[in-house]
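[User]
Protein folding is very new to me. Any chance you could explain this protein sequence and its structure tokens? I have pasted everything here:
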Amino acid sequence: MTAGDILKEQLLATTELTVKSNEDIRLGELVCDDGSGNGLIAATAALKADGLTVYMSTEEHVYATEEALGDDHIIVCVEVGYVEVIKKTGNDIKKGTQVIVSATSGEADIYVAPAVAGSFNQGTLQACLDLLNGIIGRCAEDCLNADTTMKILIGAI
């Protein structure tokens, strides 16, 4: 199995979306709208915190190549389903653990609940809410820190 694989087709929800100008998309990359409605880019934790829907790309899209071929820059993406996505290395992740968009564009990572302090200020509370809003699904199979892909239930919180 590799990044971009659809592991189970039952209850799979896909959609066709347009890639933003001059953006390259990797197979299995987490993508979302750029926040302005200009098209898909690699998802980031900051964009997900804004409440944007995160998808998994089912195809590689090299913008310059597609432009030269006269392509319309539309790719198929998975919104809900059992898929294999690009994973940020450095963390062991157990099956059932919630996953978020990593600080590294287009990659998934483990969700770690923030530490609870004795008191909260508005900035701390907002950071916690942003982190919760960043959850994109659940890990579907144990993976090791050196793994570069991860099986997840995207869109399943």
